[in-house]
Specification:
Blueprint: H1 5-19, E1 21-26, E2 34-42, E3 45-49, E4 59-64, E5 67-77, E6 80-84
Antiparallel strand pairs: 1-2, 1-4, 2-3, 3-6, 4-5, 5-6
Amino acid sequence: MNLPVACQMMDRVRQCIRDGLLALIIIGPRAPVVDCHVIDYSPGGACLEVDPQIKLPNRFELVFGPTKKRCRTVWTAGRRLGVVF
C-alpha cells in the first residue's frame, strides 16, 4: 500500500525531529569542535544531546545552521542539557 506523498513527507519530518538536528559546539579557539543534536529549539534556548563522555564548560557557542549563539548551561540530565542564549 502506497502512502500519499504528504504522509511520506511527514514521516521524514518526524524522523528528523526524533533523531535531532546536527549542530556544533565551539568550546574555545584551540579546543576541538563537539558534535551535538538539537532536540528542541526556541528563541530563548535549546535542549541539546551530547556524548556523555564529553565534559562541556558552563558557557560555549552553538552553531546551528546559519546561526551562532552564545550559550549558558542551565540544566543537565544524562546525555541532554538545556541552554539559554
